[in-house]
């Protein structure tokens, strides 16, 4: 492999690592905000209805005639952001990356 190819792979790995870190930190920040809002609501005796919103209501289960819901993606291309849920035929970007020597685990979210 050429030096340029090695550098490209190194940068792609760094990008994937940073992307995972970003998602983790965004989730932590979001959870902190949720906890803060819940504490304030409890402190002041507020409900979701007081805020003008609606509480989450459990959705009825799908019957055999209903369309299936979307599946969360399990793999992401760090270069383009394209995703794949791991069902059906592998997308071209993933098949090409695997053919070039990468592992499926390298793209796990």
Structural description of this entry:
InterPro entries: H-NS-like_N, H-NS_C_dom, H-NS_C_dom_sf. Residues 1-28 form a coiled coil. Keywords: Coiled coil, Cytoplasm, DNA-binding. It comes from Piscinibacterium candidicorallinum. Belongs to the histone-like protein H-NS family. By secondary structure, this protein is mainly α. It has two domains: 1-56; 68-109, H-NS DNA Binding Protein. The protein is 46% helix and 4% strand. It has two helices and two strands, in the order H-E-E-H. The chain has helices at 3-44, 92-99; strands spanning 75-76, 83-84. It has a two-stranded antiparallel ribbon. Strand 1 (75-76) and strand 2 form a beta hairpin. The chain is elongated and about 65 Å long. The chain starts with a helix and ends in a 10-residue tail after the last helix. The model has no long low-confidence stretch (mean pLDDT 88).
- Sheet-strand content, in percent, reads under 5%
Radius of gyration over alpha carbons? 21 Å
- State the domain count: 2
Which spans of ≥5 residues are poorly predicted at pLDDT below 50?
none
> Within the largest sheet, what's the order of strands?
1-2
Helical amount = 40-55%
Largest sheet: 2 strands, antiparallel
Structural category: mainly alpha
Overall pLDDT: 88
Question: Helical stretch count?
Answer: 2
What is the terminal separation in angstroms? 27 Å
**What order do the helices and strands follow?**
HEEH
């Amino acid at each position: 492999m050429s030096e340029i190819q090695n550098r490209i792979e190194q940068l792609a790995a760094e990008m994937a690592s940073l992307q995972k870190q970003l998602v983790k930190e965004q989730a932590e920040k979001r959870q902190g905000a949720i906890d803060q809002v819940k504490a304030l609501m409890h402190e002041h005796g507020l409900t979701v209805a007081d805020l003008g919103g609606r509480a989450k209501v459990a959705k009825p289960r799908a019957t055999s005639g209903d369309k299936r819901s979307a599946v969360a993606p399990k793999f992401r291309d760090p270069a383009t952001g394209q995703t794949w849920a791991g069902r059906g035929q592998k997308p071209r970007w993933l098949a090409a990356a695997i053919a070039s020597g990468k592992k499926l685990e390298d793209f796990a979210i």
